[in-house]
Every structure is written in C-alpha cells, then in structure tokens.
Amino acid sequence: MQISEKYNPQETEQKWYNYWLENKYFHSEPNDKPPYTVVIPPPNVTGILHMGHMLNNTIQDVLVRRARMQGFNACWIPGTDHASIATEAKVVAKLKSEGVSKSDITREEFLKHAWDWTDKYGGTILEQLKKLGCSCDWDRTRFTMEPKLSQQVIKSFVDLYNKGLIYRGYRMVNWDPEAKTNISDEEVIFKEQNGKLYFLKYKIEGSEEFLSVATTRPETIFGDTAVCINPNDERYAHLKGKKVIVPIVDRVIPIIEDEYVDIEFGTGALKITPAHDINDYEIGQKHNLQMIDALDDDGNLNDYGLHYAGKNRFDVRKQIAKELEEKDLLLKAEDYVNKVGTSERTGAVIEPKVSVQWFLKMSEIAKPALDVVMDDEVKFYPEKFKNTYKHWMENIRDWNISRQLWWGQQIPAYYYGDGENDFVVAEDKYQALVVLEEQKGIIANLDDLRQDEDALDTWFSSWLWPMSVFDGLLDPENKEINYYYPTSDLVTGPDIIFFWVARMIMAGLEYRKEVPFKNVYFTGIVRDKIGRKMSKSLGNSPDPLDLMERYGADAVRVGIMMSAAAGNDLKFDSEQIDEDGNLLTEKQIKQRMEEGKDPIYTSPLCDLGRNFGTKIWNAFRLINMWNHEDKPANSTEIQTIEWFENQLNKSISEINNQFDKFRISDALNLIQKLIKDDFCGWYLEAIKPNYGEGISKEVYNKTIELFEQLMKLLHPFMPFLTEELWQTISERNTENALVIAQQKKAEAFNEDTIKNFETASEVISGIRNYRQTKGISPREAAEIYTNASEFANESVIKKLANVSEIHFGTKTDKPSFTFLVGATEISIPLSENLDLEEEKTKTEEELKYLKGFLISVDKKLSNEKFVANAKPEVVEVERKKQKDALDKIAILEEKLKSL
Length: 899
Prior knowledge:
With about 900 residues, this protein is an alpha/beta fold. The protein is globular and about 115 Å long.
C-alpha cells in the first residue's frame, strides 16, 4: 500500500465524487429494502451556498449516508424553488440594466427572459452542494416550476376550490411596493425604526376649535374618512355627532364613536384611513365608511394626494410636515420609536392595501395538522418547537395565496365577463369552456376567456413538495409515491415552521391522509463568535466554497457539525486574515470591503476538523509502516484488542442512541473520541511493535479490520478522506466501495473489560504524570507498589508506563510518589535523581493547602442549615470533596514519613 505523506483534499475530493456519480451509488429505485427518504428544503433558484445551507445540507448528508450504510434504500431528492419574488426581482433588474421595463413587454416575453435566467443561473447552488459531498440522487432533481410540478399545483388549486376551501375576496393585504405584490403576514418582518409622532389639528366644522390627532404617517391624511373617539371619553362628549376638516385636504369627515379607541393612548382621537391600515379597515367596514386609496402600487401618492401626486410616500412625509407647520395645522412633533412592517424578501416598508385576492381557508385543514404534531405522529427535534407550532396553528388566519407577479404558477381562474363572479376555475382554458357550459350554461370560445393575471404564492407549490417530487398528485397510486412516501426525516430551519413545515403536513393529510415525514429536525442559525447572525453585509460570513478550498470539504463539515448543538443557534468561530496570514481588525475588514477585496477566512473549528483528518491519515501511515511477522499475538496485544472490540461495540450503541435523539454533533464527538483517544491514543500505542521488531500478522490484520470499522462510522461525516483510505487499504471493486459498505451493528459488550482498561489507562497516566512533573525521562523504568491484588491489564501497564515490576498488595517504606485510582493506591519509589529535601518541602506545602481546604468543607457540612436546605446532590458533592481530601492527606502524611 502506497500512501502519500500528507492528505490532499484538492486532489482527492473531485476524484471520489466523480467515482460515486459514475457508479450511481446515490441513485435509488424502489426495491425490497426499507426506504429512507429525505426531500431537500429546495433552495431558491436565485441562491448561492451560504453557511446556513452548509449546516443544513451537511446534516442531511450525514443522515442519508448513514442510512445507506445501515441497509436502507436511501433516496435524497434534490431540487430548487422558483422563488417568485426573488427571481422576478432579479429578472426585472437584468432587463432594467438592458434598458427594458417590465411594463413594456408582454407576460410571455417576460417569462422567456425568466426561463433564460433560470437556465443560466438556476443550477449554481446544486453544483455547489456537490462540492460539499452531498449524496443526492441527482437523477431525480426537481424544480417547482417544471411542467409536471406546476401541473400538480394547478390540480390542487382546482381541487381545493371545488371543495369550497379556496375563495376570492376583497381584503386588506400587505403590499410590497418594491416587488409590486402583496405578501402574507408571515413574510412581514417588524423592525424598530426611529421616526416622529405628528400631532395634527383637525378643525371642527363651523368652529375655531380643533381636535388633536396623533399619527406617524401624515402622508395618509389624503385617505382619511373619519376621526374616531371612545364613546366613554368625557373630554370629547361635546363633539359627538360633529364633523372635522382634514388638514390640507379640506375634506369634511364625521366624528364617529367606537370602544376600540384607547382613551389613554395618544390624544384619545384616531384618524381613520380604511384603505391604509388594517385596524382602520375593520372600523371602516363596521361604520360603512368610504374607502379612499391615496397610494399607487409603487408607494407614490396618486391623484387623491393633490399637489403631492406622483411623489414617494416618504418624501411626502417630510414635505407635508413642513406644509402643516406653515399653515398652523401641526400642533407638535415628537421623536418616536415604533415597529414598522417590512418585506422579508425586499426589505421595503409594507403598505397596507385593500384589493381583491385569493385565499385558502385554513381552520378546517389546520386542526388535523396540529393533532399529528401534538400526538407525536410527527416528532419535532428539539421538542420545544411544538409550543411555537401549537400557538400558530391555534391562531391561524386564511392564507392569502395570490401574488401580483408573472413568475410562478398562474392562477387557473378564467373570466368570461365583467361581473365580480364572472369566472370559472379549471386546469386549463379547454377545461374552463367545459366547466363554463356545465356550471353556468354558457357556451363560449377560447378567445372569450381571459386568465387571472396573478400568480400563486411560491409556498403553494412547495407545500406539495414531498408528494409532487414523486408525481403523487398526478398519479396517486404510482409505485414511487407508494414506496417513498411518507418520507423519513426533514431537516430545516425553525424560521419556516409555518411557511413550509405546517403547510406540508396539511397538504399531506389532505391528499394522502398520511403525514409527509416522521421527524423534523430544526437547525439553529449560524452566528459568528460574538453572536451576530452571519451576513455578507456585516462582513462576518465566510464563503463555504472558500473554506472548502482552504481546508477541504471534510474539515469544514466536521467544523460546522462540532458547533451544531441540536436546535440551538451555533457560533461558528472564524477570523478574516490578509494575504500574509495576519488577522485583520474590524476597521481593516471594513476598509477591504470598501476596496472590493475578497475576504480570506480562517476558522479554528475547521482547523480542528483538518487536524482530526491529519491524525487519522497519520495513524494509517503508522500502521502501514510496520513489518508483519509470523508470530503469535502477545498478552498486551490480546488484552488491547479485547478491550477495543468491547469499546467499539459500546460506542456504536451510544452513537446510535445519539442519532435516535438527533443529537448529531454529540454522535460526532463520540466517534472522534473513539478514533482519536481510544484508537490512536491507546490502541495503537499498546500494539506498536518495539523498535526494530515487526508486528504479528494476526494483530496487523485485526488492526486493519478495526480501522475499517472506524472508517465506516466516520464516513457520513468525512466521506472523502474515509473513501480515500478505504480504497488505499486494499483494491476494491465497485461493489465494495465504502459509500455503500455496511456499518457494524451494535453488539453486546463487556462493561468490566472496558472498566479494567480504563483503570489501566489511569494508572499509566498517573505514572507518566509523575515522570513529567519530576522531570524524569520516560526511558527510566519504574517499579510500583499497590494495594490492589492484581491488574487485569498488567502487561499493558508495564509496556505503556515502562514499569519493570508491580508489587501487588504491598506497601513500600521508600520515599514515594503516591496517587489514587478510585480506591486503588499506587506508589512509585522516587528516583535517585530527585532532590528529597525539595520534594519534602513541596509535599508539606500541598499538605498545608489540603488541610485548609478540608477545614472549609467541614465547616460547610457542619452547618445544619446548609445540610437541611441545600439540594441532596449539592451536599453529596461536598461530602465527596471531604472524602477525597482525607484520602489525599493520608497519602501525603505517609509520604512525609518515608521522606
């Protein structure tokens, strides 16, 4: 076996990924094996790999690779989401750069540009996932706007409409003036903003008196249709039934009464603008007020805005404040901090707007979807997210599913007249003609129909994802949907628990009467070391591709998994450096960003991942260098092999337990300990042949066998390094690649064998510690005295601690260094090279410290209040401290006598 001195991920990773693809190891077809199915949370087609994707997809790949190695038919479906708002914005921006406006071209022309853009850039993130090592079944890649998936979206819309669950209504919506579409309540992010609270004078009609009304949005006065007071507010009793004049607008509007108004808040009088505020809309409906929409779709004032028509709402806010002041219509303006709704996608400030939209009734389909989570038919990890889910599902509103966009599935409603209800819903125009005749008795031509201009919300396609990827709505009894559905595990972020997770559960129960997945693992947010969410704008987010180029994919995978505690936000420690490797300050980072210099990141976590890989590589190189001899195994080797086999079985059981709980980083820590500490630190040291000697062929073969088992356990986390080592150990045919090798099953283990070796390792560490603290060479053999009658691993202790003789059940009168391993006392006669006077002084100082420490512990335990009120486990800790101190004092006093 030839193996290079250093592992080179750049040479290795592409080689093995190509090998896996060529041999179709990731491809799945229904067979006799139990299925393990995962559907990727489809990244936006506009997206590129960031640290959140890195975490999410590493976890998915670990789960999928492990399932494949445990005898499951693993199927990981990749794909992308068409991302209506984000993609349309990209295409609009591209056209704008070419001097073309969306409003100047037809829908068909725009969609051609959108498809061209998607074809050119849409696969970027999937190619990047391959660099990470993701073992997706790429033959099954799906796209939410591809014909078959779109067909299923339309089919579900028609079905839900026919069931009476979808309706068309005139409602207040969240309007995004930048994307020029409405968005759902869940897509509105509230942010604190500094602004002003303006107190305006609304003059009482026919009087010099005025009513003071406070508002943060004076530009909306053009839509005012009433001022509202609380009927119980005595301050305004004399104004009941009167009217006021809207400042600047000079429109006369009524003073109305409603208990909705909080007497204690502001002036106790509210301007009512039904077209521009959700609460005002409700009051307007209740009091039959006129609806005046003073803003256009771009967030500019329209003709109702008088001389401000065509001007941006925020510019008008500043200008109108000046005009109000000049006309003595502004009482005062105060600094004010309020929460402003912004669009999750564009960041634009949301404008409430009344319009005709399509809605899906949620209450009926939400109840079963709540029950399956509360009853653990779908399990959440961590479980705390059940409460979040429950709160949302119990307070659910109807889902606004229409968007004023062209990129997306066009709503299958066909209008044949100008009346509000002059439409039919059908899968296409031809079906619409049939439905029109059947339901309305109207015979029409294709040219008589016009399709609804709106597109469906992107989530209305992705809520079908676990079914639509298997064409489950087109052919509900096809072989694949019946085999792969329900899927096994879903890995996603808690930020889309409502957008996606809840809705997929609803859709699955609606269309297959079955939950879409059994487990949901919620990842945390990737943050920097001081807790800030990683983002390119802050300059604190490494590019995963750069990290992989620098460290190798395996090291980055291990690095991010080491910081990924289940369901909690994780701190990914990274630093920016310059071209010479010097750490940069915040100021230097900012300066480089302004200069457009690409950031260079270093990460201690990735360093740990790389160092772990190097340790494994060097361990194999060490084994590979040993000469093999025809000789039997000695007692040290036999004892060590017996211990490690038991330790391996125990670790496999513990690793499986962590995976069952979705504590994946804890599973990785167990594997790291097993390889780094147990195998490299103890096993290899114990069996390593003496200088100039060879190793028994029997022991060598056993060691390779154990190393192979370790590579199988590690492979899901570090697929490239392990496959390289696996293929180096011996020539393998395509049926014996590591990627499809089967992991060792958990077997019974002997706890006593493991404990005996742990005792031996503590004895060895104690002896090594003695040599190190006293500056004694490890080559100087030692003899030891112990009150133990025997050590199960005597030969291991003798070899690894360089012990010439062990005197069992014997004390020594010689000056000694003594330590405890549990109740076992170990004494090492002091080397002749030691200064006994100095040793005596050190022992006296240590004894003095321990006696002082014991007094403080005794004092605490003699305090009846402490013993009575403290938790039992706290009292027990103090008693253990007391016993340990007494044992050590006894040993040191004995040592002083001998000195």
